[in-house]
Design goal:
CATH architecture: Up-down Bundle
CATH topology: Growth Hormone, Chain: A
GO molecular function: macrophage colony-stimulating factor receptor binding
InterPro entries: IL-34, IL-34_sf
Distance between the termini: 60 Å
Protein name: Interleukin 34
CATH class: Mainly Alpha
Strand content: under 5%
Organism: Xenopus tropicalis (Western clawed frog)
Number of helices: 7
Helix content: 55-70%
Strand order of the largest sheet: 1-2
Number of domains: 1
Number of strands: 2
Keywords: Signal
Radius of gyration: 18 Å
Amino acid sequence: MRRGILLFLCMLVLGRTSVIHYKCEFTHALNEKLLYDNRLTYMGDYFPKDYKIIVRYEEVLRCQNITSLRNQGTTVEELRSLWSIINEGILMKIIEVLPEKHPSFGYIKELLKIFTQLLPDNLKIQTEIIEDIMERLRKPDETGPGKAVRPKALLDNCFRVLYALYEEECNLCNPRSEAEDDTLCPSATIPPIIDYKNSSYER
C-alpha cells in the first residue's frame, strides 16, 4: 500500500516537472524574441514615430496590475492565463494592420506561434476579479472605450510581466542593455491597487 502511494506521488512530481519544463521551453523562446533590441527594431523603428493602436484598458497589463491582482487573491496560474490571452489578442490586433510585406509581420507571427503553446487548454477561473476582466475582454471592441498605445509599449509590458510570472520557475536570464535599465519589475516594491481606467500608462 505504501509503495503504491509513493509510486503515485512520484508520478505526480514527474508529471508536474514535465509540464513546467514544457512551459519553460516556450517562455525561454519568448524571452529571446522579446529582448530589447528586437522590440526596438520591430515595434519601434519599423513603425511611424507616433503610431498607436487602440486597445482595451484591460489589455494594458503592467507589473503594477499583476501585483495588485496577486494582492487580491488571484493565483499565479490565473495570472499567467490572463497574460497569455491578453497578449495573444494584442498581437492579433497588431498583425491585422500590417501588410504581409511589412518587416515586422514575420516577427509578430513567430510571437503568435509561441503564445499558442502557452495558452491554457482548460482555463479554470477561481477569483471573481479575473472572471470580471475576462468577461470584459470577451465583449466586442466597439462596446467600450479604448486607449491608444504604441505597439512597442505593449510588448514592453508583455516582456516585463513575463519576468514577473516566470523568472524564478523558468530561470529566465535577461542580458540588459543600458537603454532600458528599468525593464524588469522591482520585486521589492508593492504598488497600490491599480484602477485600469484611471491608471497612467505612458512612462
